[in-house]
Structures are given as C-alpha cells and as structure tokens.
Amino acid sequence: MSFATVIPKRPGEMMWFGLLCLGMMAGAVGVVQVLVHGHDHVYNVSREIPWGILISTYVFFVVSSTGLCLVSSLGDVWGFEKFAIIGRRGHLLALLTLCTGFGTMAMELNHPIRMGLYAVISPNFTSAIWWMGALYGFYMVCLIFEFTSLMRGWTRLAFWSGLAGFFAAITAHSNLGAVFGLLEARHFWYGSYMPIYFIVSALASGAALTVLIVYFNHKARGIEMPPVYQEFMYTMGKLQALFLGILLFFVVWKIIPGLYGQPPEKYETTMAWITGPLAFNFWFFELGLGILIPLIIVANRRTRTVFGVMIAGLLSTIGIFFMRYDLVIAGQMVSMRPEAVEGASHGLLHYFPSLTEIGIVIGSICLCLFLYSLAERVFDLEGGHRH
After folding, report:
1. Cβ of 34: how many Cβ atoms within 10 Å?
2. Residue 346: helix, strand or coil by DSSP?
3. Transmembrane region positions (predicted)?
4. Angular region, 354: left φ>0, alpha ψ -120 to 50, beta rest
C-alpha cells in the first residue's frame, strides 16, 4: 500500500484525523508537564487518594480490551459464524486498547521502567498487582500472535493463540478485579464480587465497542452496510441487552450490601456514591447513559435497529468510562485516618482530576482512536474464517 492511500482525502476524514491530532497534542502537553514539573505538582492525587483518573482510565482500557477479545473470539475460536467477520477488527482494537492502557498506567507511575525491571528480577508471587502485569503481558503476546495469524491466514495458529488469549483475558481481568477485591482495608472494594463484576462489565464494554467499530467503519467509508453486517448488528443488540441486564443486576447487588445494616466505612462510601459527590456520575452517567437507556433501546424490537444498536453502544461506552472512574475514586473517599486528614469532612475525602490528568486522558483516547483509524487504512481488516 502506497503512502498516498493512507492520507485522508475526504473532508470528513480530514476533520476526524484533525480532531484526533488536537486531542493527542493536549495529551502531549500533559506529558511534558509531568516530565518538567513532576507528578506531585501537576496531579491532584494525594497520599490519601493515590489512585486518580489515570488509574480508572487504565482500568477502562483493559476492560475494553478484554471485552473485545471475548466477543471477537466467539467467531475465531468458538466457531460462531456470525462473529467471524469481526475477528480482525476486534482483536486489533483489543491490542490497541491494551497498549494504550499500559501507557496510561505508565504516566501514573514515577518510575515505570524501574517497576518493569524489578518485576522481572525480583518478582513478588504473592502480589495481585505483580500477577496482573504478568498475566496481561502474556495476554498481549497472545493478541499479537492471533492478529498476525488472522492477517496471514494461518488458521491453526490463529485458533490456538486465540484460545490461549481467550482464557488469558479472563484470567488477567478477573485478577485485576482481585487487585481491588483483595484490599481488605478498603471495604467498598473488598470481596469476591469484584473479579466476577469485572468480567461482566468487560462483556458489556466489548459488545458496545464492537458495534461502534462496525457502524462507523461503514459510515466513514460512505458505503451501505451489507446484510451480513446488519444481521450481526441485530445479534449484537440482543447480546448487549443480555450483558446490560446482568450488569444492572450486579450494580443493584453492589448497593444493597453497602446500605443494609450500615456497615462501617462501606456505608459511607456507598452513600458518597449514590447521594454524595459522585451521585450525578452514578445516576446520570453510570445508570442512565450506561445501562438503562441502552437497555431500553436494545430490548425493544422497534428501536433495535442498526442505528439504535450503535446509539446504545455509544451511550454504554460513555457510561462505563464513568463507571470505572466512580469505582476507583469512591473506594478511596472514606479516609482510614479521618482525624489526621486535613480538609476531610466527616472522614470523606475529595478528588477532582487536574487539567494535566484530563489532558493525558483525552490524549490517550485520541491516540488509540488515531492508531485504529490509521490501521483501517493500512490493513485489510475485512473477512474472517471459521475453524
């Protein structure tokens, strides 16, 4: 493919790539601010709330990667013919979101290279975070092998690498849930609920992103969606209804234990989530945009059209981003030492991301979209096969 074919020529494409470049410039400015002034001066995280929006964005990206891998594997690994057409695109975006998540995490760390070095030469096998890095590293290798095999037509290698990637995605992502669920000091996170909840939310996120890349790929090229893709969108609408219904079930049962009996610390965190500083995020973004409105759209035959499924996917993606943010921040809002925390009101801490943090988040999202949009022009991502 020549360089000329990669350069966007239509006004809409030029505007899209231009907006993405502006977003990446905002991210680059944020990175420079971090390198020049240091984390302590440009991030709004603190000793009491050490995990901010960059951690929640990392979780959002890896949740999306896992979901994309699981949905795409339905065709390439498990032989469901309808899903074979999404194999290349789904696994490519899964790889890009995973790498972007790693980059976002690196910007949160003071010494990411040192961390990687000591994770190899001095591993802590009892640490859930160490296992998170190891499992996601193996998962990334599986994605690389599977995408390469799909592009080359290496059927057997694509199957085995896809099978390994499928189970690696589940293992790595449930372990990420365990990173939160094993923290006994943080009552809002603690418990066996988290690993399962992370898998369910990954499926919802993966289904939402899958319909978005199918819809906007045809829209951007100005071509009518073939019947096979239209049928795929209807099927994905049904899957979205299933995943969102299960996710709603999990959200309800996340709230009830936090309220019943008013357990110390967990009750205060739950109230901060549903009636306190995070209430708007929860009711409008998480529950409204993220679950209820998309569920109504895809559960109704009249609105479960190609366009309706796309809208549901878009709203779910926005809502799940805030879902990840609220989960990370809410779990830290109740101080473990309220009497020693300056500025805490009744033990409730406050956090709002700085402009630098927001810029890096915008830049990471735009970078991921830019790389995927470029890949659509470079690679032949059509087609699929069944094993």
Report:
1. 20
2. coil
3. 16-37, 49-71, 92-109, 129-150, 157-176, 196-218, 239-260, 280-299, 306-328, 348-372
4. beta
What 278-287 contacts at long range (C-beta under 8 Å, 24+ apart), as own/partner pairs, is 278/326, 278/329, 278/330, 278/333, 281/322, 281/325, 281/326, 282/326, 285/318, 285/319, 285/321, 285/322, 285/323, 286/251, 286/319, 286/322, 286/323, 286/326, 287/251, 287/319
Q: In this structure, what DSSP letter does residue 305 have?
A: S
pLDDT interval class at 48 (50, 70, 90)? confident
- Under DSSP, the state recorded for 348 is B
What pLDDT is stored for residue 387 in this prediction?
Answer: 41
Backbone angles phi, psi at 189, to 5 degrees: -90, -30
Torsion angles phi and psi, residue 345, rounded to 5: -105, 110
Concatenate the DSSP letters of all residues of 133-197 into one string: HHHHHHHHHHHHHHHHHHHHT-HHHHHHHHHHHHHHHHHHHHHHHHHHHT-TT-TTT-STHHHHH
pLDDT in tens, 116-166: 888 889 888 988 899 999 999 999 999 999 999 999 888 899 999 999 999
Burial of 138 (0-12, 13-18, 19+ CB in 10 A): middle
CA torsion through residues 140, 146, 151, 154, sign: positive
* Phi/psi at 140 (5° precision): -65, -40
Residue (of 94, 105, 57) closest to 361 by Cα position: 57
Pairwise CA distance, residues 250 & 330, whole Å:
17
Q: Does the pLDDT at position 274 exceed 70?
A: yes
Alpha carbon of 241 to those of 119, 172, 219, 309: distances in Å?
40, 25, 24, 10
Domain boundaries of the chain, sorted by first residue: 10-43+354-379, 44-353
Q: Contact 182/190 with Cβ under 8 angstroms?
A: yes
Quick check: pTM over 0.90? yes
Adjacent-strand bridge partners of 334: 348
Query: Of 286, 51, 361, nearest to 189 (Cα)?
Result: 51
Q: Provide the sign of the torsion angle of the four alpha carbons 309, 310, 313, 319, taken in this order.
A: negative
Domain 44-353, second-level architecture: Up-down Bundle (1.20)
pLDDT score of 195: 92
Question: Cα angle at 199 between 276 and 63, to 5 degrees?
Answer: 75
**Strand, helix or coil for residue 56:** helix
